[in-house]
Write a structure and sequence with these properties.
It is globular, with a radius of gyration of 20 Å. It contains 12 helices and no strands. Helix content is 75%, strand content 0%. It has one domain. By secondary structure, it is mainly alpha-helical.
Length: 297
């Protein structure tokens, strides 16, 4: 047990080190005074609605995850699922090592409802895959808006039904249990990512950006896709690196793109931190029921 804790701690601090190096690299490529000037001109009234949009996106994401649980014959109330989701968000940021938020949810639900671990893991993985698919769809739409050639625009739009068709067939051939929730889960994914794009849009307005918005939003979506790779806690540093290099490719202001990324990460941390309440008060996850130990033995 002690060796596992050491391994988890080592992985966490390694990820933290990678995040630190990434953030340091980004700031060495930018002028601090320019970034400071952007934040000094920040339009604060946009920030609270942006945070509320992000929080709403996570609530919709929790509902989506519950659809995959139900596909595996696990019935969890939306209230319990949302509380557990918040705790998982907190763990994804701050818990050392490999258990993470998804791992703790799998552990908790297995102990509580005796649902096989394999079913819970597949439901969690498909929830992530479904979220990634939603990002790809919105990024394709955003790219279609940006391109000037009508031929390329039509080709990009034409790929959308092909993407949905391939995804549906993949589920039907290999994961039939999730076919009944295909359309609902995909609509929820579009809702999740749409709310987060709206959050990024308000952050751009808060920074005073009025031109080139589709390009900034496309870069935000691309950074969200890359952020799925678990190499830093909460994707801190990873988003900023993508924002820095992507800005040069899309011919937009790298200071603005990095500033949006930093602000989005800050909102993510603040909302995720709400989950600490359920870490300190685990009896509030499922009120009136026995308290499960916080970590697996």
């Amino acid at each position: 047990m002690a060796s596992k804790r050491v391994q988890r701690a080592a992985k966490f601090f390694l990820k933290l080190a990678v995040a630190g190096v990434a953030i340091y690299f980004v700031f060495t490529q930018l002028e601090w005074e320019d970034l400071k000037g952007l934040y000094q001109q920040l339009k604060w009234p946009y920030l609270l609605p942006a945070a509320l949009l992000f929080a709403s996106s996570k609530a919709v994401s929790a509902v989506r995850l519950n659809r995959f649980f139900k596909a595996k014959q696990l019935v969890v109330s939306e209230a319990i699922n949302l509380r557990l989701y918040l705790l998982g968000m907190f763990y994804n940021l701050f818990l050392p090592g490999g258990i993470g938020g998804d791992g703790y949810k799998v552990y908790w639900l297995n102990k509580r409802y005796k649902t096989p671990v394999k079913d819970l893991v597949w439901a969690s993985l498909h929830d992530r895959l479904n979220g990634l698919f939603g990002l790809v769809v919105l990024a394709t739409v955003c790219l279609a808006v940006l391109v000037e050639e009508s031929t390329w625009r039509l080709l990009l739009v034409a790929t959308l039904p092909l993407l949905y068709g391939a995804y549906y067939l993949g589920l039907k051939w290999f994961f039939k249990d999730f076919v009944p929730v295909f359309w609902r889960s995909n609509l929820l994914s579009l809702g999740v990512q749409g709310l987060q794009v709206a959050c990024a849009y308000l952050l751009l307005l808060a920074l005073g950006v009025e031109e080139g918005l589709p390009a900034y939003l496309l870069l935000f979506l691309l950074s969200s896709i890359i952020a799925i790779v678990p190499v830093t806690p909460g994707a801190i540093g990873l988003r900023e690196v993508v924002a820095l290099f992507g800005a040069d490719l899309l011919l937009i202001d790298d200071k603005v793109s990095v500033s949006v990324s930093l602000a989005f990460n800050l909102i993510t941390i603040l909302v995720s931190f709400c989950g600490i309440y359920f870490m300190l008060r685990p009896n509030k996850i499922a009120p009136g029921e026995d308290i499960l130990p916080l970590h697996p033995e």
